[in-house]
Design goal:
about 270 residues; alpha+beta; Nuclear Transport Factor 2, Chain: A; five-stranded antiparallel β-sheet; 9 helices; 9 strands; elongated; DUF4878 domain-containing protein
Amino acid sequence: MKTWMKVVLGGVAFLGLLFGLVFWITGGAADASDEFFAKVQNGEMDQAYELLTEDFQAGTSKEQLERFLSSSALDHVTETSWSSRSIENNVATLKGTVTTDTGGVIPLTVTLVNSDAGWKIQGIEKGQSGISGESDMPTLPPNEKQREIAGATTDVFIDSVEAADMTALHQVSSSFLQEQATVEKLNAALLDIGGSDGEMSVLKGKTPFLAGPAELDKEGTLIINGYYDTLPNRYEFRYKYVYEDDDWKLLGISNRVVPATTTFASF
């Protein structure tokens, strides 16, 4: 065999050995990542949250994690494929794709740290989808997501009415609304809307109807008009949101309880 060919084959063998070594060293990281998505898929969010580093947990609550996974279609991952693995100073980076239960394939990068407690997830980065541009303007969510957003707001509003205290609604509002309206101001403006005691409790957990297409203005404000088709009275709302901290946060609220025979009209 010619000398140059021996050198080439030796180099190939070395690279193969090196690749195998990296694959073996990062095996625990890949297993931890797969375990995380399996627990999320099974609805075991408490256990999944424990697979994050303390640093990750300090900056992201379990509720925020759930919203991110749901909005990114990462809450139903059935298969992972890591085409690139690297490790440096006990920090492993996995790059590849995940497949959801609907057959969708999502590019993903997961960073993990090896500690005394084993491999823990430090970061999850989803590959960008859609049209890429310079604008950070949010996009209009689909109708199903709009109903989910509005329904969650109504549920918190009802809880606040029943408690005779708008603290819960204030806490889930945008930073702008929190700065502009104290809990006391919200109490004065909204508590009387609830009607008689317990009248609105039947709406909790129900999905609202949309009263026409939602709006997303040039400032990025999402406006959702809707109602609950109940008897004898109907709850109508106009909710405004701003995209903040990877979620739609309440910016403004207009609502009323009217006879069910009333034709819906814009606020």
